[in-house]
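step=encode ok
step=design start
structure_in=
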């Protein structure tokens, strides 16, 4: 358990209402974030600054004091810009990871012809690493890190490997929201090599991701996370079979009532932060 008096919850996600809504969980995370903030816990949210997010409407502005970090992706440096906004109806800050090459385009994962972006692997690695690097820059040790969405799926692995000796994460417990596959494409033959080059990893570290597709991202994140939430009905049968209540690590079954009542998820935050 970490030493600060207030418990600290970090949500890292690729969707959050009202900024971007890919699944119903974007609304659940909004309600859960506000409930956690209102409880007196410290909470911060990190997400990508996708180009379709309207900066003027949502009042995003750059945090100059946090910018200037370079993030390594496959041995290449990429500048990280940090933008921030307050969640509507709450004094809760949402930090947006931005980079002109990866996130300026007015689309999320596919172009106007519905082609999966060729650089989605690099975007995935950049976002996962930039989220952890900015927490180091904050000097803000989270008790709980809730990772949601396939673009966060490397974070549970990073926390147990290349970032495990970072003092800021020494007491962090990770949660991963498992969802249905959101893309059928492969991440490419160089995916595992690219991940290893980006974080000084070994073959065994990335082995759970070896199928190099969306299913592999879910499986690998579940393998490394401390707690798994079944975020949707109709999950991949192998994921459900491998990661279900009573088989080792803590697993939270899907509950359709979360849209109206986030109390069970909030209690999960409370319990994990006290372990």
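sequence_out=
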């Amino acid at each position: 358990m970490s030493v600060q008096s207030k418990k600290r919850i970090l949500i890292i996600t690729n969707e959050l209402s009202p900024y971007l809504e890919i699944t119903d969980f974007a609304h659940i995370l909004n309600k859960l974030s506000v409930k956690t903030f209102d409880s007196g816990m410290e909470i911060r949210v990190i997400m990508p600054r996708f180009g379709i997010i309207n900066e003027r409407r949502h009042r995003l502005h750059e945090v100059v004091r946090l910018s200037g970090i370079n993030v390594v992706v496959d041995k290449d440096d990429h500048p990280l810009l940090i933008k921030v906004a307050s969640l509507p109806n709450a004094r809760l800050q949402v930090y947006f990871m931005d980079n002109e090459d990866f996130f300026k385009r007015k689309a999320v994962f596919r172009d106007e012809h519905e082609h999966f972006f060729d650089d989605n692997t690099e975007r995935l690695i950049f976002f996962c690493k930039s989220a952890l690097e900015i927490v180091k820059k904050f000097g803000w040790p989270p008790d709980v890190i809730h990772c949601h969405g396939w673009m966060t799926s490397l974070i549970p692995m990073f926390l147990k490997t290349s970032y495990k000796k970072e003092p800021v994460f020494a007491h962090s417990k990770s949660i991963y929201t498992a969802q249905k596959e959101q893309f059928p494409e492969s991440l490419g033959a160089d995916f595992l090599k690219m991940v290893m080059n980006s974080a000084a990893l070994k073959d065994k570290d990335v082995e759970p991701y070896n199928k190099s597709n969306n299913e592999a991202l879910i499986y690998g994140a579940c393998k490394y996370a401390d707690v798994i939430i079944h975020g949707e009905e109709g999950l991949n049968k192998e994921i459900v079979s491998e990661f279900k209540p009573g088989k080792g690590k803590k697993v939270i079954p899907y509950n359709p009532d979360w849209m109206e009542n986030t109390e069970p998820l909030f209690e999960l935050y409370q319990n994990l932060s006290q372990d």
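step=design ok
step=annotate ok -> The CA atoms of residues 32 and 262 lie 6 Å apart.
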